[in-house]
Every structure is written in structure tokens, then in C-alpha cells.
Amino acid sequence: MTISRRKMIALVGGGLVVAASAGAGGFAATRRPNAALAPWDTAGRYKDPRMAALSWAILAPNPHNRQPWQAELVGSDKVRIWREAARNLPETDPFDRQMTIGMGCFLELFRQAAAEQGFVAEMSLFPEGEQGPVADITLIDGGVSDPLFRHAVSRHTNRLAYEDRLPEAAALSAMAQEASDIITDPGRVETLRALTWDAMHIEMTTHRTQMESINLMRLGKRQINANPDGISVRGPLQEALMLAGLITVEGQSDPTSAEFAQSVSFIRAAQDATPAYVTVKTKGNSRLDQIEAGRRWLRLHLTATSHGVAMQPLSQALQEYAEQARLYAQVHEVLAAPGETLQMLGRIGYAADVGPSPRWPLETRMIG
Ligand SMILES: Cc1cc2nc3c(=O)[nH]c(=O)nc-3n(C[C@H](O)[C@H](O)[C@H](O)COP(=O)(O)O)c2cc1C
User: Which of 38, 49, 63, 301 has the smallest C-beta neighbourhood within 10 Å, fewest atoms?
Assistant: First the structure.
């Protein structure tokens, strides 16, 4: 079975091949995992304003789509937010830094969704210390709607190859409000292209980090609907490849397999097709810094979306495990001042929209 390189486009999600959904009409429609995508349609449709805000917040970006958040309604106007440790990614996120950033994305989207309903979400972060709940939130009257909020429903992580042109000046200057840096200089872009690829290759060829992704792979509609989280591999072409035995758990786990080699080249082709990068950095690296980084990242992604600019985090070089130490040091040398932490690094550019990723229904994330 030969697949043209143009049709196959790698998506990076811990290094797994996913093909572009080349419109296959009816087949595409029947393979859509509707149950897993339902939360995108039901967001906001709750009477209790806390539930309405939560139903938006669960659409936030988060590492490997683990959706680590849990929420507990308290009294009539409060909600307590937890992070579920069982959803951690100990190999690639040993200090839960990225999970905490994901919680920051969630809290910012909650804030915007509450504001849209006329509430200020007053947040007390880590009210019982870092081992306890992430936030206690009280809704009080008076929120002012945020113009970024209307882009929440069309914000998606886009892992396709991007066009060979920079985002327009208006988009770059809007994004500069939230980003720490936007890298457009061709020489620096080239440096980052090489560095981010090296880092991805390390993740893919380090058995335990690659397996962390493989174990979260959901292959096709049935698996995605059953477990609407992790790394979903879907779409008509992908399902054809799975049926043909060309996307398998075994092949993806074996760096000597032909399937693996093909993954590497597809992922590289997409990742290399990047005209510019963005960062979010912090001076410290406390839990509060990480939450703030997540809040900024969410606003940055919504700003990009509002300008039709696609975005994808490339987190591998930022990760704190031994095999990445050399690239961690390098990426900080290139992008950060001494003492600063690079919390997020992403690629930006123009590409076709990719549509939403799965979410667990809000009800399954409620506790208490
Ligand atoms: C802290 C953090 C790190 C992430 N790192 C990556 C990454 O390295 N590669 C990638 O493709 N996506 C990365 N993502 C994006 C998530 O995979 C994505 O948000 C999740 O799968 C949900 O999809 P969505 O953003 O389209 O809703 C990251 C997201 C966060 C918040």
C-alpha cells in the first residue's frame, strides 16, 4: 500500500503517525467519534453558572489530553478545582510542571466563561498548599466579557505542516501581547527547527518516554469513544492504515520497524514546516508561575485562533528527564535568560483547520 507523502501528514503527539483527514466524504462522517466530541457542542448549556463555566473549561489544552482536572461544587457560589494525580505523565513530566500549566489553561478558560455570564471568578490558588486543591473559586457579580472567549470553540492544537509564510503583522503583534518571544528570524527559526526535532527524536527513541505516549494511543472511533482522552488516531486514512496493519501499537513501539521509520519521517516533515515559534517564559518556576504560564498560553492560543493562525506546542526539549538534559540546556541557552524557565514553546503558522479533540463529559470530572 503506497500513500502519497502529500496526503500523509504527521501529527506529533508524543511521536505517533497520524494522517491528515483527506476528505473522504461519507466514510469520514461515519468514523467521527461523536460521543467523544459531544462536550464541544454542549459547552455552556447548563443552568448553574459554575457548571456552565466548567463545561467550557474542560475544552482547555492540556498535556497528552489527559484532562487532569476535577471539580467539586461547594455551597451555592463556589467551586473547588483539583488535579487528579492518576493522570500524571511521570516519564515526560516528572515534576508535573506541564500538568500544572494545563490547570492554568483550564482556570483561564473558566474565568473567561464566567465573565461571559456576568461573573468575576475570584480564585484562591492552592488554598491548602501545593498537595491540596489547585483552586477555590467564588463567582461574584460583575464580570466583563473577554473578546478572546468566542474563539474557545475553534481553538485546536494543529499538528499539520504549516505553509511557508509568516503570520501577518497584525497577528504577530496581537500575539506579542501574551507571548514572551515570537521567533521569526530565519536563522533562529532554523536553529529551533533542528533543536525541536532532535528533542522529538530523543523522546521517540527513549523507550519509557515513547511508551508513555503509546500507552495513551486510542486507535479509531471505538477506542476514542470509550476513552476520550490521550492521543487519538482517527480519520478515514488513519483507519484504513490501521485496518491494513500499518499503524499498530507494536510498530510504533519498535524503533527498528519500517512503521516507526515512516512515523519519524512524517512527523519530521510536519514539524519542519514551521515558519515561526512562540514562547512563554517565567522568571521563577513555582506552581504559581506554572499556573500563570498556562493562563498566558491559553490566551496566546486564543489570540492566534482569532487571527486564523495555527499553533502546536513542541514540549520535548523543555522536559526534565535525563535523556533530554542536553537539549533542555540548549533550548534555555537559545531562548531564555539565566534563571528563566521556558514553560512553553510552540510552532505557529497557517494550515487547514483540524477540528476538535475528544473530551470526557463534564459529569465524569465532577467529584463530591
Ligand atoms: C503543557 C502542554 C504541553 C503540550 N505539549 C504538546 C506537545 O509537545 N506536542 C503536541 O502536539 N501537543 C502538545 N500539547 C497540546 C495537547 O496535546 C492538546 O492540548 C490536547 O491534546 C488537547 O487538544 P486540543 O488542544 O486540540 O484541544 C501540549 C499542551 C499543554 C497544555
Answer: 38
